[in-house]
Amino acid sequence: MTLTNNYDVKDASLAEAGRQRIEWASREMPVVKIIRDRFSREKPFAGIRISGCLHITTETANLALALKDGGADTILCASNPLSTQDDVAAALVDYGIPTNAIKGEDDVTYYKHIDTALSNNPQLTVDDGADLVTTLHTKRIDLIKDIIGGTEETTTGVIRLRSLEKAGELKYPLIAVNDAQTKHLFDNRYGTGQSTIDGITRATNVLWAGKKVVVCGYGWCGRGVAMRAKGLGARVIVIEVSPVRALEAAMDGFLVMSLMEAVKEGDIFITLSGDKHVIDEAHIREMKDGAILANSGHFNVEINIPSLESMASGKRTIRPYVDEYTLADGRRLYLLGEGRLINLAAAEGHPASVMDMSFANQALCLEHLVKNRGKFKPQVYAVPEEIDKQVARLKLDSMGIKIDTLTAEQEQYLAAWQEGT
Ligand SMILES: NC(=O)c1ccc[n+]([C@@H]2O[C@H](COP(=O)([O-])OP(=O)(O)OC[C@H]3O[C@@H](n4cnc5c(N)ncnc54)[C@H](O)[C@@H]3O)[C@@H](O)[C@H]2O)c1
Question: How far is CA 63 from its chain centroid?
Fold first, then answer.
Protein backbone atom coordinates (compact mmCIF):
# COMPACT_ATOMS: atom_id res chain seq x y z
CA MET A 1 0.00 0.00 0.00
CA THR A 2 1.39 3.40 -0.88
CA LEU A 3 0.13 6.30 1.11
CA THR A 4 0.45 9.68 -0.49
CA ASN A 5 -2.22 12.03 0.81
CA ASN A 6 -2.90 10.47 4.13
CA TYR A 7 -1.82 13.39 6.26
CA ASP A 8 -3.17 16.28 8.29
CA VAL A 9 -0.90 19.13 9.30
CA LYS A 10 -1.53 22.73 10.33
CA ASP A 11 0.25 24.56 7.54
CA ALA A 12 2.16 22.95 4.66
CA SER A 13 4.01 26.22 3.97
CA LEU A 14 6.00 25.74 7.21
CA ALA A 15 7.91 22.85 5.60
CA GLU A 16 11.10 24.75 4.76
CA ALA A 17 11.46 26.07 8.33
CA GLY A 18 10.88 22.54 9.59
CA ARG A 19 13.50 21.09 7.24
CA GLN A 20 16.10 23.51 8.55
CA ARG A 21 15.37 22.66 12.17
CA ILE A 22 15.44 18.92 11.39
CA GLU A 23 18.83 19.40 9.76
CA TRP A 24 20.03 21.36 12.80
CA ALA A 25 18.95 18.53 15.15
CA SER A 26 20.71 15.96 12.95
CA ARG A 27 24.07 17.59 13.81
CA GLU A 28 23.53 16.40 17.37
CA MET A 29 22.37 12.92 16.38
CA PRO A 30 25.54 11.18 15.13
CA VAL A 31 24.47 7.70 16.24
CA VAL A 32 21.18 7.87 14.37
CA LYS A 33 23.16 9.19 11.38
CA ILE A 34 25.47 6.15 11.40
CA ILE A 35 22.44 3.85 11.59
CA ARG A 36 20.65 5.82 8.87
CA ASP A 37 23.64 5.48 6.52
CA ARG A 38 23.74 1.73 7.08
CA PHE A 39 19.95 1.44 6.63
CA SER A 40 20.27 3.31 3.31
CA ARG A 41 22.69 0.66 2.07
CA GLU A 42 21.07 -2.44 3.57
CA LYS A 43 17.33 -1.55 3.34
CA PRO A 44 16.27 -3.65 6.37
CA PHE A 45 12.69 -2.35 6.11
CA ALA A 46 12.19 -2.81 2.36
CA GLY A 47 8.43 -2.91 1.85
CA ILE A 48 7.66 -2.85 5.59
CA ARG A 49 4.78 -0.68 6.78
CA ILE A 50 5.39 1.23 10.02
CA SER A 51 2.89 3.28 12.04
CA GLY A 52 4.45 5.62 14.57
CA CYS A 53 2.70 7.50 17.38
CA LEU A 54 5.42 9.85 18.63
CA HIS A 55 5.98 13.45 19.67
CA ILE A 56 6.37 15.17 16.29
CA THR A 57 9.67 16.92 16.92
CA THR A 58 12.88 17.49 14.98
CA GLU A 59 14.42 14.40 16.63
CA THR A 60 11.48 12.17 15.69
CA ALA A 61 11.85 13.43 12.12
CA ASN A 62 15.44 12.19 12.07
CA LEU A 63 14.30 8.76 13.25
CA ALA A 64 11.53 8.68 10.64
CA LEU A 65 13.99 9.63 7.89
CA ALA A 66 16.33 6.80 8.96
CA LEU A 67 13.42 4.33 8.71
CA LYS A 68 12.41 5.75 5.34
CA ASP A 69 15.95 5.43 4.00
CA GLY A 70 15.85 1.84 5.27
CA GLY A 71 12.95 1.19 2.89
CA ALA A 72 10.02 1.62 5.29
CA ASP A 73 6.62 2.93 4.33
CA THR A 74 6.07 5.04 7.44
CA ILE A 75 3.09 7.05 8.63
CA LEU A 76 3.11 9.15 11.80
CA CYS A 77 0.69 10.68 14.28
CA ALA A 78 1.19 12.69 17.46
CA SER A 79 1.51 10.99 20.85
CA ASN A 80 0.26 14.08 22.67
CA PRO A 81 -2.16 16.84 21.58
CA LEU A 82 0.24 19.61 22.60
CA SER A 83 3.70 18.29 21.69
CA THR A 84 3.64 18.70 17.91
CA GLN A 85 6.01 21.09 16.17
CA ASP A 86 3.86 22.20 13.23
CA ASP A 87 6.83 23.10 11.03
CA VAL A 88 8.29 19.62 11.52
CA ALA A 89 4.95 17.97 10.69
CA ALA A 90 4.84 19.98 7.44
CA ALA A 91 8.45 19.08 6.60
CA LEU A 92 7.83 15.38 7.20
CA VAL A 93 4.97 15.44 4.70
CA ASP A 94 7.33 17.18 2.29
CA TYR A 95 9.86 14.39 2.81
CA GLY A 96 7.16 11.88 1.81
CA ILE A 97 6.26 10.73 5.32
CA PRO A 98 2.50 11.21 5.87
CA THR A 99 2.09 12.91 9.24
CA ASN A 100 -1.09 13.52 11.21
CA ALA A 101 -0.43 16.01 13.95
CA ILE A 102 -1.48 19.55 14.79
CA LYS A 103 -0.30 21.35 17.91
CA GLY A 104 -3.31 21.98 20.16
CA GLU A 105 -5.56 19.42 18.48
CA ASP A 106 -8.57 18.31 20.53
CA ASP A 107 -9.03 14.74 21.76
CA VAL A 108 -11.34 13.83 18.87
CA THR A 109 -8.74 14.92 16.32
CA TYR A 110 -5.99 13.20 18.31
CA TYR A 111 -7.76 9.84 18.04
CA LYS A 112 -8.78 10.48 14.43
CA HIS A 113 -5.06 10.95 13.69
CA ILE A 114 -4.27 7.64 15.41
CA ASP A 115 -6.93 5.96 13.25
CA THR A 116 -5.34 7.45 10.13
CA ALA A 117 -1.90 6.22 11.20
CA LEU A 118 -3.38 2.74 11.56
CA SER A 119 -4.92 2.88 8.10
CA ASN A 120 -1.43 1.96 6.89
CA ASN A 121 -2.18 -1.60 8.10
CA PRO A 122 1.14 -1.62 10.00
CA GLN A 123 3.62 -4.45 10.31
CA LEU A 124 5.61 -2.54 12.93
CA THR A 125 4.39 -0.02 15.50
CA VAL A 126 6.38 2.64 17.32
CA ASP A 127 4.53 4.07 20.29
CA ASP A 128 5.13 6.67 23.01
CA GLY A 129 2.61 6.18 25.81
CA ALA A 130 0.80 3.16 24.30
CA ASP A 131 -2.21 4.98 22.84
CA LEU A 132 -1.58 3.40 19.41
CA VAL A 133 -1.21 -0.10 20.87
CA THR A 134 -4.30 0.41 23.04
CA THR A 135 -6.33 1.51 20.02
CA LEU A 136 -5.16 -1.59 18.14
CA HIS A 137 -6.14 -3.83 21.06
CA THR A 138 -9.57 -2.25 21.55
CA LYS A 139 -10.82 -0.94 18.20
CA ARG A 140 -8.61 -2.42 15.47
CA ILE A 141 -7.97 -6.03 16.51
CA ASP A 142 -8.46 -6.93 12.82
CA LEU A 143 -5.09 -5.32 12.03
CA ILE A 144 -3.06 -7.26 14.58
CA LYS A 145 -2.64 -10.39 12.43
CA ASP A 146 -0.17 -8.56 10.15
CA ILE A 147 1.94 -7.06 12.93
CA ILE A 148 5.48 -8.36 13.37
CA GLY A 149 6.06 -6.37 16.56
CA GLY A 150 6.45 -2.94 18.02
CA THR A 151 8.42 -0.71 20.36
CA GLU A 152 7.45 1.53 23.28
CA GLU A 153 9.33 4.69 24.16
CA THR A 154 8.25 5.76 27.65
CA THR A 155 7.80 4.57 31.24
CA THR A 156 4.04 5.07 31.28
CA GLY A 157 3.65 3.18 27.98
CA VAL A 158 5.71 0.25 29.28
CA ILE A 159 3.58 0.15 32.47
CA ARG A 160 0.43 -0.02 30.32
CA LEU A 161 1.89 -2.78 28.13
CA ARG A 162 2.97 -4.84 31.15
CA SER A 163 -0.54 -4.50 32.53
CA LEU A 164 -1.97 -5.68 29.18
CA GLU A 165 0.48 -8.60 29.22
CA LYS A 166 -0.42 -9.51 32.82
CA ALA A 167 -4.10 -9.54 31.93
CA GLY A 168 -3.27 -12.06 29.19
CA GLU A 169 -4.52 -9.61 26.56
CA LEU A 170 -1.31 -8.58 24.80
CA LYS A 171 -1.60 -9.74 21.21
CA TYR A 172 1.81 -9.07 19.66
CA PRO A 173 5.45 -8.71 20.78
CA LEU A 174 6.68 -5.34 21.99
CA ILE A 175 10.12 -4.15 23.02
CA ALA A 176 10.34 -1.81 26.03
CA VAL A 177 12.82 0.71 24.62
CA ASN A 178 12.37 2.87 27.72
CA ASP A 179 14.03 0.18 29.81
CA ALA A 180 17.30 0.19 27.85
CA GLN A 181 20.03 1.71 30.00
CA THR A 182 21.04 4.01 27.15
CA LYS A 183 17.46 5.30 27.15
CA HIS A 184 16.15 6.00 30.65
CA LEU A 185 19.48 6.79 32.33
CA PHE A 186 19.99 9.64 29.88
CA ASP A 187 16.72 10.64 28.19
CA ASN A 188 14.53 10.45 31.30
CA ARG A 189 17.17 11.93 33.61
CA TYR A 190 19.21 14.48 31.66
CA GLY A 191 16.68 15.06 28.86
CA THR A 192 13.66 15.59 31.11
CA GLY A 193 15.84 17.37 33.67
CA GLN A 194 16.96 20.05 31.24
CA SER A 195 13.87 20.33 29.05
CA THR A 196 11.37 20.55 31.92
CA ILE A 197 13.28 23.49 33.36
CA ASP A 198 13.42 24.92 29.83
CA GLY A 199 9.64 24.55 29.35
CA ILE A 200 8.77 26.20 32.66
CA THR A 201 11.28 28.98 32.04
CA ARG A 202 9.99 29.69 28.53
CA ALA A 203 6.38 29.70 29.75
CA THR A 204 6.95 31.91 32.82
CA ASN A 205 10.42 33.49 32.70
CA VAL A 206 10.75 32.76 36.43
CA LEU A 207 14.04 33.06 38.27
CA TRP A 208 14.83 29.66 39.75
CA ALA A 209 17.39 30.89 42.28
CA GLY A 210 15.83 31.00 45.73
CA LYS A 211 12.52 29.42 44.67
CA LYS A 212 11.06 26.51 46.61
CA VAL A 213 10.56 23.84 43.96
CA VAL A 214 8.53 20.76 44.85
CA VAL A 215 9.35 17.72 42.68
CA CYS A 216 6.73 14.97 42.89
CA GLY A 217 8.28 11.60 41.97
CA TYR A 218 11.99 10.85 42.31
CA GLY A 219 12.28 8.37 39.46
CA TRP A 220 14.59 8.89 36.51
CA CYS A 221 12.77 12.03 35.40
CA GLY A 222 12.33 13.46 38.89
CA ARG A 223 16.02 12.93 39.71
CA GLY A 224 16.95 14.91 36.62
CA VAL A 225 14.61 17.82 37.36
CA ALA A 226 15.58 17.98 41.05
CA MET A 227 19.28 17.97 40.11
CA ARG A 228 18.93 20.73 37.53
CA ALA A 229 16.64 22.91 39.69
CA LYS A 230 19.19 22.64 42.51
CA GLY A 231 21.92 23.65 40.08
CA LEU A 232 20.00 26.82 39.31
CA GLY A 233 19.85 27.73 42.98
CA ALA A 234 16.35 26.52 43.82
CA ARG A 235 15.57 24.99 47.20
CA VAL A 236 14.23 21.60 46.17
CA ILE A 237 11.71 19.50 48.09
CA VAL A 238 11.13 15.91 46.91
CA ILE A 239 7.85 14.03 47.33
CA GLU A 240 7.86 10.23 47.05
CA VAL A 241 5.77 7.19 47.88
CA SER A 242 8.67 4.74 47.57
CA PRO A 243 10.69 4.56 50.82
CA VAL A 244 13.88 3.66 48.95
CA ARG A 245 13.63 6.56 46.54
CA ALA A 246 12.66 8.94 49.34
CA LEU A 247 15.78 7.85 51.21
CA GLU A 248 17.88 8.29 48.09
CA ALA A 249 16.52 11.82 47.62
CA ALA A 250 17.27 12.65 51.26
CA MET A 251 20.86 11.41 50.91
CA ASP A 252 21.23 13.23 47.61
CA GLY A 253 20.74 16.34 49.71
CA PHE A 254 17.10 17.22 49.07
CA LEU A 255 14.41 17.98 51.62
CA VAL A 256 11.91 15.12 51.66
CA MET A 257 8.44 15.47 53.13
CA SER A 258 4.81 14.66 52.47
CA LEU A 259 3.04 16.74 49.85
CA MET A 260 0.57 18.01 52.47
CA GLU A 261 3.56 19.50 54.33
CA ALA A 262 5.13 20.92 51.19
CA VAL A 263 2.06 22.57 49.68
CA LYS A 264 2.15 25.51 52.04
CA GLU A 265 5.74 26.34 51.10
CA GLY A 266 6.15 25.54 47.42
CA ASP A 267 6.52 28.20 44.73
CA ILE A 268 6.71 25.76 41.81
CA PHE A 269 5.26 22.23 41.80
CA ILE A 270 6.38 19.73 39.15
CA THR A 271 4.87 16.25 38.80
CA LEU A 272 6.87 13.44 37.17
CA SER A 273 5.40 10.29 38.66
CA GLY A 274 3.34 8.62 35.92
CA ASP A 275 0.58 8.54 38.55
CA LYS A 276 -2.90 10.06 38.77
CA HIS A 277 -4.03 13.02 40.93
CA VAL A 278 -0.69 13.30 42.69
CA ILE A 279 -1.63 16.93 43.27
CA ASP A 280 -5.24 16.65 44.42
CA GLU A 281 -7.99 18.92 45.67
CA ALA A 282 -6.78 18.82 49.30
CA HIS A 283 -3.33 20.01 48.18
CA ILE A 284 -4.68 22.73 45.91
CA ARG A 285 -6.74 24.03 48.84
CA GLU A 286 -3.58 24.69 50.87
CA MET A 287 -1.27 26.14 48.20
CA LYS A 288 -0.08 29.68 48.58
CA ASP A 289 -1.10 32.55 46.35
CA GLY A 290 0.94 32.60 43.15
CA ALA A 291 1.99 28.95 43.16
CA ILE A 292 2.91 27.52 39.75
CA LEU A 293 1.83 23.97 38.79
CA ALA A 294 3.47 22.01 35.99
CA ASN A 295 3.51 18.39 34.90
CA SER A 296 6.24 16.61 32.96
CA GLY A 297 4.89 13.07 33.34
CA HIS A 298 3.35 11.45 30.29
CA PHE A 299 -0.37 12.14 30.78
CA ASN A 300 -2.23 15.24 32.00
CA VAL A 301 -3.74 13.37 34.94
CA GLU A 302 -1.02 14.00 37.53
CA ILE A 303 -2.59 17.29 38.62
CA ASN A 304 -6.32 17.03 39.37
CA ILE A 305 -7.32 19.62 36.78
CA PRO A 306 -11.09 18.95 36.98
CA SER A 307 -10.90 19.78 40.72
CA LEU A 308 -8.88 22.93 40.04
CA GLU A 309 -11.45 23.95 37.42
CA SER A 310 -14.35 23.37 39.79
CA MET A 311 -12.67 25.23 42.67
CA ALA A 312 -11.92 28.27 40.53
CA SER A 313 -14.17 31.30 40.36
CA GLY A 314 -12.23 32.70 37.41
CA LYS A 315 -9.76 31.61 34.74
CA ARG A 316 -7.75 33.49 32.16
CA THR A 317 -4.74 32.77 29.98
CA ILE A 318 -2.26 35.36 31.18
CA ARG A 319 0.51 34.37 28.75
CA PRO A 320 0.92 31.45 26.37
CA TYR A 321 0.89 28.17 28.31
CA VAL A 322 0.04 29.95 31.58
CA ASP A 323 -3.56 29.70 32.84
CA GLU A 324 -4.38 31.73 35.93
CA TYR A 325 -7.05 30.21 38.19
CA THR A 326 -8.59 32.48 40.82
CA LEU A 327 -10.00 30.57 43.74
CA ALA A 328 -12.99 31.62 45.85
CA ASP A 329 -10.71 33.05 48.58
CA GLY A 330 -8.84 35.19 46.05
CA ARG A 331 -5.68 33.06 45.76
CA ARG A 332 -4.33 32.69 42.24
CA LEU A 333 -2.73 29.49 41.01
CA TYR A 334 -0.99 29.12 37.66
CA LEU A 335 -1.32 25.91 35.63
CA LEU A 336 1.23 25.53 32.83
CA GLY A 337 0.56 23.94 29.45
CA GLU A 338 -2.88 22.61 30.46
CA GLY A 339 -1.07 20.10 32.67
CA ARG A 340 0.44 18.36 29.64
CA LEU A 341 4.14 17.53 29.56
CA ILE A 342 5.54 21.00 29.89
CA ASN A 343 8.88 20.32 28.20
CA LEU A 344 7.09 19.51 24.95
CA ALA A 345 4.15 21.89 25.35
CA ALA A 346 6.11 25.08 26.08
CA ALA A 347 9.59 24.14 24.84
CA GLU A 348 11.01 21.72 22.27
CA GLY A 349 11.25 18.54 24.31
CA HIS A 350 14.57 16.85 24.90
CA PRO A 351 17.72 18.10 23.21
CA ALA A 352 18.65 16.12 20.09
CA SER A 353 21.86 14.76 21.59
CA VAL A 354 19.96 12.69 24.15
CA MET A 355 17.22 11.62 21.73
CA ASP A 356 20.08 10.33 19.56
CA MET A 357 20.42 7.42 22.00
CA SER A 358 16.70 6.81 22.53
CA PHE A 359 16.02 6.76 18.82
CA ALA A 360 19.12 4.70 18.00
CA ASN A 361 17.57 2.09 20.32
CA GLN A 362 14.24 2.47 18.52
CA ALA A 363 15.80 2.03 15.08
CA LEU A 364 17.90 -0.98 16.09
CA CYS A 365 15.02 -2.66 17.96
CA LEU A 366 12.73 -2.31 14.94
CA GLU A 367 15.44 -3.88 12.79
CA HIS A 368 15.84 -6.65 15.40
CA LEU A 369 12.09 -7.38 15.23
CA VAL A 370 12.18 -7.68 11.44
CA LYS A 371 15.35 -9.80 11.37
CA ASN A 372 13.89 -12.20 13.91
CA ARG A 373 10.28 -12.12 12.77
CA GLY A 374 8.28 -15.15 13.83
CA LYS A 375 10.57 -15.86 16.78
CA PHE A 376 8.77 -13.64 19.30
CA LYS A 377 5.69 -14.34 21.42
CA PRO A 378 3.11 -11.72 22.41
CA GLN A 379 5.20 -10.46 25.32
CA VAL A 380 6.98 -7.34 26.49
CA TYR A 381 10.67 -7.88 25.69
CA ALA A 382 13.75 -6.10 27.00
CA VAL A 383 16.05 -4.32 24.57
CA PRO A 384 18.80 -6.85 23.71
CA GLU A 385 21.91 -6.07 25.76
CA GLU A 386 24.02 -6.00 22.61
CA ILE A 387 21.91 -3.15 21.19
CA ASP A 388 22.18 -1.19 24.46
CA LYS A 389 25.98 -1.61 24.52
CA GLN A 390 26.30 -0.77 20.84
CA VAL A 391 24.41 2.51 21.35
CA ALA A 392 26.68 3.39 24.29
CA ARG A 393 29.83 2.58 22.29
CA LEU A 394 28.72 4.62 19.27
CA LYS A 395 27.75 7.57 21.48
CA LEU A 396 31.11 7.50 23.27
CA ASP A 397 32.89 7.37 19.88
CA SER A 398 30.90 10.38 18.67
CA MET A 399 31.93 12.28 21.82
CA GLY A 400 35.59 11.36 21.26
CA ILE A 401 35.71 9.45 24.56
CA LYS A 402 37.89 6.35 24.82
CA ILE A 403 37.51 3.87 27.66
CA ASP A 404 39.66 1.04 28.98
CA THR A 405 39.16 -2.66 28.32
CA LEU A 406 39.65 -5.56 30.69
CA THR A 407 42.96 -7.42 30.46
CA ALA A 408 42.79 -11.20 30.06
CA GLU A 409 43.91 -11.50 33.70
CA GLN A 410 41.10 -9.21 34.85
CA GLU A 411 38.48 -11.06 32.83
CA GLN A 412 39.58 -14.31 34.40
CA TYR A 413 39.64 -12.79 37.90
CA LEU A 414 36.17 -11.30 37.56
CA ALA A 415 34.76 -14.64 36.39
CA ALA A 416 36.32 -16.71 39.17
CA TRP A 417 35.54 -17.35 42.85
CA GLN A 418 38.81 -18.97 44.00
CA GLU A 419 40.95 -15.92 44.69
CA GLY A 420 40.17 -14.15 48.00
CA THR A 421 42.09 -12.62 50.90
N1 LIG B 1 8.45 14.80 29.83
C2 LIG B 1 9.09 13.90 29.12
O3 LIG B 1 9.63 14.18 28.06
C4 LIG B 1 9.22 12.52 29.66
C5 LIG B 1 10.35 11.74 29.33
C6 LIG B 1 10.45 10.46 29.86
C7 LIG B 1 9.43 9.96 30.68
N8 LIG B 1 8.34 10.74 30.93
C9 LIG B 1 7.23 10.29 31.78
O10 LIG B 1 7.51 10.76 33.12
C11 LIG B 1 6.89 9.89 34.08
C12 LIG B 1 7.96 9.41 35.07
O13 LIG B 1 8.91 8.60 34.39
P14 LIG B 1 10.16 7.96 35.16
O15 LIG B 1 10.96 7.25 34.12
O16 LIG B 1 10.80 8.95 36.04
O17 LIG B 1 9.38 6.88 36.06
P18 LIG B 1 9.90 6.13 37.36
O19 LIG B 1 9.03 4.93 37.50
O20 LIG B 1 11.39 5.97 37.31
O21 LIG B 1 9.58 7.17 38.55
C22 LIG B 1 8.32 7.53 38.98
C23 LIG B 1 8.42 7.82 40.48
O24 LIG B 1 7.22 8.44 40.92
C25 LIG B 1 6.92 7.92 42.20
N26 LIG B 1 5.50 8.11 42.48
C27 LIG B 1 4.43 7.39 42.02
N28 LIG B 1 3.29 7.87 42.53
C29 LIG B 1 3.64 8.91 43.33
C30 LIG B 1 2.90 9.81 44.14
N31 LIG B 1 1.57 9.72 44.25
N32 LIG B 1 3.59 10.77 44.83
C33 LIG B 1 4.94 10.87 44.76
N34 LIG B 1 5.69 10.03 44.00
C35 LIG B 1 5.04 9.07 43.30
C36 LIG B 1 7.34 6.46 42.12
O37 LIG B 1 7.54 5.90 43.41
C38 LIG B 1 8.62 6.55 41.31
O39 LIG B 1 9.76 6.68 42.13
C40 LIG B 1 6.23 8.79 33.25
O41 LIG B 1 4.90 9.16 33.00
C42 LIG B 1 7.02 8.82 31.96
O43 LIG B 1 6.32 8.22 30.89
C44 LIG B 1 8.22 12.01 30.47
Answer: 14
Express as a percent the part of the chain with pLDDT over 70.
99
Say if residues 297 and 220 touch (Cβ distance below 8 Å): no
What is the position in ligand 1's atom list of the atom closest to the CA of 297? Answer: 10
Q: Ligand 1: residues whose CB is within 6 Å?
A: 154-156, 184, 188, 192, 216-222, 239-242, 245, 272-275, 278, 296-298, 341, 343, 349
Per-residue pLDDT reduced to its tens digit, 223-246:
999 999 999 999 999 999 999 999
> Which atom of ligand 1 is closest in space to residue 239's alpha carbon?
33
Please state, as a whole number, how many other Cβ atoms lie within 10 Å of the Cβ of residue 328.
9
CA distance 316 to 307: 16
* Closest protein CA for atom 31 of ligand 1: 278
| pTM of the shown model | 0.96
